[in-house]
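It is worth pausing here to work through a concrete case rather than discussing structure prediction in the abstract. The textbook approach is simple: state the sequence, then state the predicted structure, then interpret. We follow exactly that order.
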Amino acid sequence: MAVLTVRDILEATRGRLVCGDSETFRGVSIDSRTISEGEVFFAIRGGRFDGHDFVEKALLRGTGAVVDSVPGRLPAGRVIIHVSDALRALQDLAGFIRMKRHIPVVAVTGSSGKTTTKEMIYSILSQRFRTLKNQGNLNNHIGLPLSLAGLGADDEAAVLEMGMNARGEIRRLCEIAVPDCGVITNIGPAHIGRLGSLHAVRDAKLEILPGLDVAVVNADDAFLMEGVEAADFDGAIITFGMDSEAHVRADDVRVAESGCTFTMEARDRGSLPVALKVHGRFNVYNSLAAAAACLSLGMGLNEIRRGLEAFRPVPMRFELIKGDGITLINDSYNANPFSVEEALRETLRLAAGGRAVAVLGDMGELNEYAEKEHRAIGRMVSAMGVHVLVAVGKKMMLAAEEVEQAEGKDRLPRTFVFEDAGAAERDIVNILERGDTVLIKGSRMMSMEKIAGSIKNVI
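Step two, the predicted structure:
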């Protein structure tokens, strides 16, 4: 936990002390509902809220507030610091705290696998270091600085996930976090609707490169590697992969009841077996990315293996739940075309002779690409041999249309269509049969976890 003085905040934010004295703060908060005693409240203005409306409530428990609009009535016994922009002040404070500490910082970005890779790196680094990570999915222009502001005097390393919706966002996050090592998991069509093209998505992810000592990149992603090779990057590059001659690679990948096993080979460092407690070829990639990042920080192979084998699935990210006759794969946290394809492939493999049931919700942030990408999912489901498609949402209905219109209808999946997750939640158990392997996946806005919860209640 970061310990901050008024002087620290004034120096970092170039703010003005309006009232109060030299209090010491024990952390920061942007939520008046959860702020703890001794924390300083940052009154962030958002699209749906304005933190200034909650300053009075926050100060009932918090010790001070950073505002860009001074309240009309100043509180007794509390600190008020005025800045030009409260969000910028939070970001500047996080950067100030980070630069006070000479510790390794790893940043993780990519179109999919960011959170799992971040958690794997955390598990490995924790074998040796007291490590800070951003909690959950707090990976944006608010969440990352909020997490980094919690960097304590006893923290010895940090790993931070970096998300983005627009060009320039990862560049700004790197200005705040100043990472030493950056990981790019892959490039896919996530956010393509906002950015306009796959090249623009890649360019936005490559904003992580300037200033890094080490870049860890996916050697099997030819499109990513093309961008990295064209970039003016003068740091070290460490590659990972399975199909290429990467610095860190996996061989002899096998599926076990409890997860995946493989031999990890690190160039010039040796090899050793690894037994993951998670399923999916994509998770082998995530583990290789994590291993490569930690090797760059001087971690040993045995420490890396212990960290990977100690890792457990992140909730709602290909979380495997075996019940009485039905296997549920709760991958409901988010979805994009790339991650849906990977999840479908692994679901079919796990079905192993039983029915593969794909319960798919709308994919967000595709904009003008939405119809094309959802229809492509329908063709993919048919071509792969999925047995049942449960389409949830108006856009995923287009995938169901593609299934119905395809040739060879006797071989096609059975289709069920629901307007939203609530409707699907009520009927899903009537669609399932004993022996089914059921994938639940959709963008966050679709609340697909409701359907997963309904299934969990009966298996």
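Step three, interpretation. The longest strand covers residues 248-256. The chain has a mean pLDDT of 94.
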